[in-house]
Amino acid sequence: MAKQMPKPRRRLREGRVGYGLPTILAVGLHLGILILSVVKWPFSEPEAPNNAIVQATLISTATTTDQAQQAAEARTRAAQRAAEEKSAAEEAAAKEQEAQAEQQAQQEAAQAEAERQAQEQAAEQQAREEAEQQAEAERQQAAEQAQAEADRRAAEAEAAAKQRAAEEARRQEAQAEAEQKAQEEAERQAREEAERKAQEEAERKAREEAEQKAQEEAERQAREEAERKAQEEAERKAKEEAERKAKEEAEQKAKAEAERQAQEQAAKEEAERKAKEEAERKAKEEADRRSREEAEAALQRLIQGDTDAVSNAEQGEEAANGFIQMVRKAVEQTWNIPPNSEGLSARISVRLGPSGELLVPPSVAESSGNAGFDNTAIQAVQAAAPFSELLELPGNVRNDYRQFNLRFDPGGVH
After folding, report:
1. Which of 41, 32, 37, 46 is nearest to 3 (CA)?
2. Can you tell me the distance from the alpha carbon of 187 to that of 180, in angstroms, rounded to the nearest whole number?
3. What contacts 335, CB < 8 A, 6 or more positions away?
4. Rounded CA gap, 21 and 131, in Å?
5. Left (φ > 0), alpha (ψ -120 to 50) or beta: where does 249 sit?
6. Most buried among 101, 112, 187, 380, by the most CB within 10 A?
């Protein structure tokens, strides 16, 4: 753009007619200033502080997740700034092209106007040639100064662009370095976290192993204690069982001894009782025998007496009483008095045949209330029969004593 500006100057210098050259120079100067201003403004905006560099100084205090997020945000902002700068550059290029087109149009219009004015003012231009030359020299100087200013601003713009590019490169380098440091920090933290977890896992396993060993030791001690207590309990029970058995054996021995002594005493008492009963039985048998013998002797005396004596009622009654007494003694000898028969009494009815045999079985005329007692009385009568002594009674008395009653009680037969 700076090199295109002298072209109108050469054309004006060739024409040297009227006011065409000053007008063209003035228009060109304004257009140059306008173009330089348009080109300068996009680069003269104040740059935003580089937050990525600030964030890079603070990233070490953030967590791994925050660092990654900040790095992503920094890349996003960088991309946005790059897009904005690209858009600004494109806009500047568009404006520059528009300005060039406008300049070209203005130059063409100015050229046409200059030619017209040159034709119209040829006479005036000729008169002021010296003044125009002076003015042209001044304008040329001004154009040169404007070109120099434009070149300076362009150089400044280029330098600023290079500076921004360098700063962007430094920023990107710093950002990359920060990202690298963040990644290294994240890796370091990850390693430290892995080491911490590994150490915690090792400590946990060691603690669990120690607890398991302690539990096993406690269980072993508990088992040993339980076995010891069980053994002590078994020994105690065995001792108690032995003592109990010894005590039972002693008690059994004492009981057996007592039973033996009691049995001996009972046997002794039984022997004494039996001896006493035997003596009493023999004495009773002897007395019964004597009574029977006396009754038989009296009966024989009655039988052998003379007829007058037999017919005597008193003698007949005596003979009958002797028969009844003999029957009672015979039945009493066969009667086994049942035990616990105190207070019992039964009356048994007896009917005899002509020869003294039982005509019918004995019957209970009056019961004692104890069937066993009554049955023993009946059995005694049956065991003592027949009573053949009935034939020895006188004929007029015999039939009267073929039926009679016998009373049984613990005292005997009556």
Report:
1. 32
2. 10
3. 376, 377, 380, 408, 413
4. 12
5. alpha
6. 380
Q: How buried is residue 135: exposed, middle or buried, by Cβ count under 10 Å (0-12/13-18/19+)?
A: middle
Q: Is the predicted pLDDT of residue 183 greater than 70, yes or no? A: yes
Q: How many CB atoms lie within 10 A of CB 5?
A: 20
Q: Is 257 exposed, middle or buried (0-12, 13-18, 19+ CB in 10 A)?
A: exposed
The residues near 356 (Cβ < 8 Å, ≥ 6 apart) are 385, 386, 387, 388, 389, 390, 391
Q: Answer left, alpha or beta for residue 369, where phi above 0 means left and psi between -120 and 50 means alpha.
A: left
Cβ 319 vs Cβ 393: under 8 Å: yes
Segment 314-373, tens digit of pLDDT: 666 777 788 899 999 999 999 999 988 899 999 999 999 999 999 999 999 999 999 999
pLDDT at 88: 85
pLDDT in tens, 282-329: 766 775 666 566 556 555 555 555 445 445 566 667 777 888 999 999
d(CA 385, CA 400): 18
On whether the CB atoms of residues 365 and 351 are closer than 8 A, the answer is no
Provide the token pair at 324: 């009844």
Strand partners, 403: 351
The whole-number pLDDT of residue 328 equals 94
CA–CA distance, 71 with 55 (Å, rounded to integer): 9
CA 256 to chain centre: 61
DSSP character for 209?
H
Answer whether residue 58 shows pLDDT above 50. no
Residue 216: both structure tokens together: 């096993």
Rounded Cα–Cα distance for residues 226 and 341 (Å): 68
- If you average pLDDT over every residue of the chain, what do you get? 79
